[in-house]
Each structure stands twice: as structure tokens, then as C-alpha cells.
Amino acid sequence: MTSEPVTPAQSGAAPDLVELTKIVARQRAELDRLRDQAATAAVVERAKGAVMSLTGCPADAAGELLLQRAKAARHTLLEECWLTLGTLAPAPGRAGESPGAGTHDSGEAALEQSDAPDDVTAALARLGQALVRVMTPHDLARCLLEHLGPDMGAEAVLIYARRPDGGLGLIGHAGIEDRLAAQWGQVPPLSGMAALDALRAGEPRWLEDFAADERRYLLIGDPPHRWRSRAWLPVVAAGPAEVCIGVLRGRAGVFTPRDRAHLRGATSLCAGRLRTFDPPPERDADATTDAVQALFEALPVAAMLLTPLRAATGETEDFRVEAATAQVGDLLGRTGEEPAGRRLLELRPALAAEPLWQGCLQVLATGKAYEGEPFAHEEVLAGVAELSVYTARVAPLGDALVVSWIRHGSSDRQEQRLADLQRLGNLGWANWNLATREASWSTQVFSLVGRDPAHGPVPLPEVPELALPEDTPALTRAIGELVHGGRPFDVPFRIRTSGGIRHLRLVAEAVADRHGTPVEVHGFVQDMTARRRAELALVESERAILTQHDVLQAERTLASRLQHALLPMSNRPVHLAGLRVEVAYLPAQSGVHVGGDWFSAIELPEGDALLVVGDVAGHGVDAVATMAQLRFTAKGMVITGSSLTGALARLSTLLLHSRDSHATATMVLARYEPRRRRLVWAQAGHPPPLLLRDGEARYLPRPHGMLLGATATPVYQEAECRLDPGDRLILYTDGLVEHPPDSIDRGLEQLADAVAAPHGDGPASLGPLLARMLPDERRDDVCVVDVRVPGVRDG
């Protein structure tokens, strides 16, 4: 069973929470507006004071001068004030100048004193105008990167501020990931940090030799060589430098004098702008923030308030955690940390790939609440780690979001597990009270029997009426025996639904009172349709297999008898044209098929010997029939005077154009002339004969020849060799040398080794050779023709 999402109106304290949060948000917005007005007034007064100190004019005259400059430059008054404040810091590195010396009474003073090229001056002027719209240190970093990136290849900008303990805190960044920013967000006061070195010396640090810089400094980056050159420039204002700006480049190389002038000028412009950033107010000084945080700390569930952080394009790039309960840190994987005031992706970078992130964006876009799927989270309760189930919910609150996590209790989990069990097992539970005649079914039972839940469950005596007529008696009898005698039952039955016949199973048992009388029946209904269909399909498959086996066995018997009739075997060697010839045929032992391997060894009318081995592709009666056709046709062609290559060409054409067979075959045809002891042979895609001479075995080089039946224009060639007394020639089919998973090359090597091995069994050695070469279980037929030329002693 699944639970419906709980809306704020349905939860007890949720309406008060939402209303109170709305009031707090409105108060905060008003405070922000007043703070902005105060900040604007403060900027104007600072700029007026700067002009007064530089020109000696009174306050009214200073304000009028600022208005005139703004009008002439087509700036707003606030923009002109920021530009004026941004030019007060002197260019760093000038010997003999005090922090306030050398300033002019115009907004271009810092640019005029920098001795920079005209294009740099123009770039700094554009930067000064852009700084007018900068509101936060992060905005400042992005603004610097936008202006310095195209000009000098800057890829990242980092702004660090000195902390009271002497270390650094990252207050603004652009061009780096939040994960890296979090990793380098706090830098302790250690030696070997270029930014700290620049602040202590009050001078820039130019890192232009990566190998040397890596030995001297601890470089920011993952990996560090991501940026091959860097510059760290302290922002010099009145007093010691407190802020350092880093510019990181992916390319190696030095910063040219022009680049250095550009960076010094940009840093000077940032000095005044950084002074306008008010430090964040203390938490105890912001009553609104305190109220929101106190409200969230009092909540009994994990919850947080998020405000979106938008990019320049208007898209939401992150969320700021405005307030959070103590449990949120654990759920975000940051146990013991304070989430409030930090970016959401800084707390959990992987969240961008999780459904909750998309849910937040969806709520911002549609204004409709979101509820995620339940998920398991390991937590430690009373010192023991256990898994708890949570559901995340997101609700809109003006421009903000309220994210909460609901922890499901044990009863909720048990109910969910029961629902999952019924769904996965395709079953449902049913109870019948025999005393009150009340019945209750789970939702799954209504679905299984195709009954509308609005009609309620069926009484136990009426359950047989759900079954098909032929199954009703057995079900009625089982229910009667259960009600009267307490005998449990497990009965299959069928029902007819809109989707067809469904096979069900009802299992029930009775609960008796103290007198042994059944008073309640508990049971479950299970859908067995898929199992029943599988059983029927299995029975049909077994029948088909048995039928096919009988057919194949009969075919094997027929093919085997036909093959034995066509290949008469001799129990002993025969002598042909002065040769001693021994043949062997061994059918396959696995499967029910008979192959098409064959041989011929006859003496021709001229006194020559014809030796043939062949193999038809395929098995069964068709292969045997094709084998017989090729065997007798080949002998007939050679006996009537056809050459070996001519016979092969005609046999290939015969197979190619045969209507009854589209088989292919391999073959070796060999003719031995005893007068010259010359062997002439040709082959059609068949393994070559093996020649044993003087104890050394080698395969005869194969002449050209392709598979029989493969093409209409076959090409065959003849080869010849002289046989000496004592030579042994082996003709064979591939079943002798091909034994998967080993390759046929491995089988050929084994055959050569077996033939060349010394043996003391005399001339009749074909049997031991076969025993050594063949495995216990053969998958293919084997045909061998063993030809020996008698030696001098034999003659």
C-alpha cells in the first residue's frame, strides 16, 4: 500500500509553520530593502568624503562635482561614486609612494598614473564601468573573469581575505567547481602558499614556471597542473593588504609587461569596490535570521529553507541554505556541520545528479509541491547503526523553498513491506469472521478477482461462485470442510475476467475458539496464471522434443544403414597398385545426426590406384545422399578418363545446380602411378595429405582449389610428388584434427606428432593412431585412408 503525499493543510503544525515563515520572509525582505538604501547612502557619502579630501571643497560642492562627472560620463550617481572609490588605491610596487599619495581629483586617476598602453587603459575603463553592477565578492570574481579571460587567457579567479588567525578565507570565486572551492575555502596560516606570500610581502607573485612553482608552493587545483601559470596580487589600500586576488591560466608562459600592467590596474580598481562590501552581519544581530533559525530548530523533522542563486542568464545555479534543523547535516552527508549560510551544492556536490535537485527546480518553475520516492539512510541511534526510510518533500514559500524529510516509523515500514510483498508475489490476503459474517480483503485481492472495491469483499460461502462451473465443486467442498471441521485447504481454481481466464490459488486456515469451533478464517489468494502458462508451455515443449527426438533417431538409423551400405568396410588392409591401404570410418558419438564423410580406394583399369576422401557439409539423409552421389560420380569420371581437376570442376557444377541439394563439400582426389611411383593429386577446400618419410612428418603443399558447390567458375590445380619405399601417406577428413575449442592448426600439429612418434606395433598402426588423436566424445564423423609404400624388405 502506498501513502498519499501529506499537504501542509493535512499535517498538524504545518499551516502555522508556513504562515509564520511567510511573515518572517516579508520582514526579511523589508530589512533587505532598508539595508540596500543604507548601503547606497553610505557609498555616496564615502565618495563625497574622498572628493573633499582630494580637492578641499565642502560637502555640497563635492556632491555637485560627483553629479557633474556622472552626467558627463553618462553614469548614474551611484556608478560614479563606485568609480571614484575604485581609483583611490595607488598602483602597488611604486617605491616611495604612501598609500594615499599620487591620487587625482577625477575618476580616471588610477588609469592615468599606471603608464599602461592605450588598449589596457580602455580595458580598465570598461572594467570600472562593469564594477558598478557588482554586488558581492562572487560577482566581482565573475566580472574579473569575464574581462580577463579573453584578454590574457584567464580561466579562474579566486578572491581570498585574511582571517583573524592569519589564514585565508575564500570569499569569491569564478571558473572553479564548488567542490574545489569547498576544498580550498579555508587556508591555514602556513608557509608555501602563494596568496599568503603575496599578502605578507605586499607585492604580486608571478608563478610562470610550473615545475619550479610546484616545488616552492602548494598549488591549488585537482590536479594542480590544470593551471600552468598563475598570478597572485594583493589589493593594497590604506594599511596592510587584507585581500588577495588570484588569476589562474591553463596555458604556460610568462605574464607580459602589458598583462602585468592590466592586472595591477584591475586590482587597483577592485580596492574601492571591496571596501563597499559590508561584512556579513553577526547572526545574533539579525533578528529576522534568528527568528527563522529558531523556528527551524524547534521543528521535530529534518527541514531547511532555501533561496535560489541565479546566474546572469536567470537560471538557478545553486541554492543558499537560509535556515536548517540539526538533522539536515547528517542527511546531506555533513554530520556535525552547520548548513545555514552555505551553498547547497557546496554541502553536497553530488546532489545535482539526484532527483531532489530536479524536484527543487520543478517546484520553482511550477509552484507545485514535490514528493520524492522513499530512500534508505543509515543513521546511528543510541550508538547502533541502522537503516531508516525517509521521503523528501519540497514546498514553495514565495521565492524560497521549504525542504523537509519525513522519517517513516516502523509501522509505516511494515505496511510498505506488506504491500511490496503482495505486489511482488502477486497475491493478497483475505479474512472472514464466521461469527459476525464480516469480511476484509486487501486491495490486491480485488485486483486479482477483478472486483470493484466499492462492492466490498465476497462472503466466504459465495467465493465458489467466482470460479468457473467445472472448478466450483472442489472449492465448495474445501470451504465446507474448513468451516465445519477446521480442515485447511490449498485449492486452485479458475475465474473469467475481462482479460481472459485467470488461474488462482486460495489457501486458507481456520482460527478456532476454546471449544474448537472455527470462528475466523485467514487466507490468501495468489495469481498462478503465469506459472500455469509456463507449465503448459513446458509440457508442450517436452512433447515436441520427444517427437523430434524420435524423428531424428529414425533419420539417424536410416542414414547410418544407408551409409554402411554405401561404404563397405574391409576388416584388413588391401593391396592396390603395389600400395598397402588401410581405411577407417568412425561415425560421430554425440547428437543424433550422421555425417557425409566418405572415402574411395580402388585400382583403375590402367593399373593405377585412385584414392579419395571427402566431406559433405551437413548431416542426415540429405548429406548421405549427396555423399553417395559425389563418391560414385567421382570414380566414374576418373575411370572414364577425366583428369583430376576436370572431375572436381564437374562435381562442383553438379552440386551448384542440383535441385535436390544446395550442399557444399570438400574433397581430395589422388592418383598413384606404380611404374614411376608418382602421386598426382588435387583438392577442393580440404586439409592436405600428411607424408611420413624417414621418421619425419610433413604436409604436402596444397595446390589451388576451392570448395565444391561454392562458385560457377571454380579453378583447380594439380600437384605431384614421388613416393619412396617406406613412405606413409595419410588422407583424412577434418573430424580427425578439429576438436573445439582447440584450433584446427593445433589438431594438425598433434596429427604430425602422432604419426612421427616411434611405435612398435608393426605395420597395422592405424588403430593406435586413431585412439591417440580422437577424444572420448566425438562430435563429427572421421574418415581416414592410410597408404603405405612397401620398403625394400617388404618387397
Q: What is this structure's SSE topology?
A:
Elements: H1 14-55, H2 59-73, H3 77-86, H4 109-112, H5 118-130, H6 137-152, E1 154-162, E2 168-174, H7 178-183, E3 186-187, H8 194-201, E4 205-207, H9 210-216, E5 229-235, E6 243-249, H10 257-275, H11 287-297, E7 302-310, E8 316-324, H12 328-331, H13 344-347, H14 355-366, E9 370-371, E10 375-381, E11 384-397, E12 400-407, H15 410-425, E13 427-433, E14 439-441, H16 443-449, H17 472-485, E15 489-497, E16 500-512, E17 518-527, H18 529-566, E18 574-576, E19 579-586, E20 595-603, E21 609-619, H19 621-639, H20 644-656, E22 665-673, E23 678-684, E24 690-693, E25 696-699, E26 719-722, E27 728-732, H21 744-756, H22 766-773, E28 782-788
Antiparallel strand pairs: 1-2, 1-6, 2-3, 4-5, 5-6, 7-8, 7-12, 9-11, 10-11, 11-12, 13-14, 13-17, 15-16, 16-17, 18-19, 19-28, 20-21, 21-22, 22-23, 23-26, 24-25, 24-27, 27-28
Helix pairs in contact: 1-2, 1-3, 1-11, 2-3, 3-10, 5-10, 6-10, 18-19, 19-20
- How would you describe the oligomerization state of the chains in this entry? single chain
Number of helices: 22
List unreliable stretches of 5+ residues.
Answer: 1-15, 88-115, 280-286
Shape: flat
The largest beta-sheet arranges its strands as: 3-2-1-6-5-4
| Secondary-structure content class | alpha+beta
Helix % is 25-40%
- CA(first)-CA(last) distance: 97 Å
Radius of gyration: 48 Å
Sheet of most strands: 6 strands, antiparallel
Beta content comes to 15-25%
The overall pLDDT, averaged over residues, is 79
Number of strands: 28
